[in-house]
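Entry 12.
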Amino acid sequence: KRIDCQVKVSGLFIEPYEIKLRIVSREVMKDNQIEDLIEQVIDRKKQWKQGKKFLALSLNGVNANAYITKINNDADNS
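Predicted 3D structure (tokens):
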């Protein structure tokens, strides 16, 4: 299953930013897992690994990867 989404991230102690991402799973993802996977991508921002055209992250809980294709308004991109 593949999910493409755009997420706006903001909080009290972080600079607001927006990411476009794709989650690709080798297993069927339940609807209630999708939000948890998106939160996992945001929480694990420092672990994103630079690829040729995107940032990638292996996700816990399902056999899935997240690909961050675009980041807006993020000063450090780390």
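Annotation: The beta strands are 2-9, 17-25, 49-50, 55-59, 64-72. The chain has one domain: 2-72.
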